[in-house]
């Protein structure tokens, strides 16, 4: 029988449910990953479950987001993450070892396995044929405790790639082309499964640049087959034993199909301030550029940095431009050094950072006032760089390095001969930087600092809920809008009372003060509400301030799951025109909501002022019980 890759992996991991789009399925999880910014909370939640040892085959705690150590808090977090990993049997990837997604691809990826990670770019591992999902920290904590991962079965979109990438066009342009066509909403409720003759020439890191930014399409995940390229990559990593071939069987009946002819692709660029604001580079050409950042989990493989290094050989940076390189991993940096790629970067005047996320999440590298920044990153949401009214463009390493040389946005083909970058025969693999867990009988004390504040108790859903409209937002609100990151706020990720003071301040600087002492409230929004990061703080911090209900036109997947996990009722408009009724401060009530929810009602009456409208609630019975209990942890306690 014809079968997609996704169906084959899911069938082998299925705990419950049917593989029909829209149904809830539960999957066994082989690998988990966390990063520091979401990890501290995830491990506090895991500890609260009272499990003695992490259950997955492979579980890794990475430190990559916050490496600034402006005070004790950050260092305390790192120490907590190191000791908690040792205590419960996880691998620990220390600060400087690299970005979770790149390191996981290099050191742990295994075709056919499942992975969930508390970071929205976890699907990067789909480049090595893993079925990998971004999730909230609580979902990862549950997987660590041996629980399955629940998701709504997506549709499977087949993406056929044919042809061959022309000179100066690379994998980033493939995913930018898909973003141009499908937009940041186009992948919602879908898994992208890639196939076609072009795969023969696409290496695993190139595939990973594509699956990485599937997250920006809103896709549940993206995956490539496991083939000769996968075998070669694992062999170069000295991990041939993890290889197994995996491809679609027969002619799988995809629910939809896209086709990209790589021969016809040209260099593309996403303009400020959304990853789908994509145009050909030549249409944006001429804009003066002040800053160029090359790196991130999407574009800092050996190939990416070598292309930049080769293009810079014998050339100088434009005097206006500040160029910074954020290597994806220590392995990339070491191999770049070995292959002679570091010197041309340094000689040209690039600043080379230790491997990590850095400016991608606003941890330093903020652009100046009015400055144009060209980045090879996955996201350019407004203000994410740390600078208000920023102008961040997203592009391939080729386009980025061209901008650094010419000092303006230019078609990289103007650089002439395209450097040939061959991967090394074997990667130099430094076995000393990843810390394996000690044996289970070794006594380890978990060390926590004063900034690590225990998890609050959340109240259950009342019989009838009353509140008022606290905020009204538009379409495509990001989790960066809901709870920003950056160097001021990231150190507070394990301190809920402190971080809550920043909730919604991007949309309304007075929000936290304005709602204080006002009981509970509802946030009203448009389409694709909560796109972007997986940070569960974007659910938990508003909940802490009293947000109990969100009423929007549609939700993004990970944020929706996080809302349910923390007892925030996710409602959608039955009639989108009702959006107009929701002015700030208006009283709202949901009469008999608890009973209706538990009875499985798919629509609820909602009173706004003296009018009554219908709103929709599309949830499984498990999710309804969770909401009634006030969140997943309460539900677990009840059990
Ligand atoms: C991001 O790219 O937005 C982040 C920072 O990596 C987030 C995680 C976080 O907010 O900690 C993500 O992608 O999930
Ligand atoms: Fe880090 Fe940026 Fe990747 Fe998020 S998108 S994991 S901040 S590099």
Describe, in short, the structure shown.
The protein is of the alpha/beta class and 639 residues long. It is 28% helix and 19% strand. The strands form five sheets. It has a seven-stranded mixed sheet, sandwiched between helices. Strands 20-21-22-23-26-25-24 form a seven-stranded mixed β-barrel.
Characterize the structure shown:
The protein has 639 residues and is an alpha/beta fold. The chain folds into three domains: 11-264, 2-Layer Sandwich (Aconitase, domain 3), CATH 3.30.499.10; 268-415, Aconitase, domain 3 (2-Layer Sandwich); 465-638, Alpha-Beta Barrel (Aconitase, domain 4), CATH 3.20.19. 28% of the residues lie in helices and 19% in strands. The chain is built from 21 helices and 26 strands. The protein has a seven-stranded mixed beta sheet, sandwiched between helices. α6 (171-182) runs parallel beside α7 and α10 (302-312) crosses α12 (342-348). It binds alpha-methylisocitric acid (MIC) and iron/sulfur cluster.
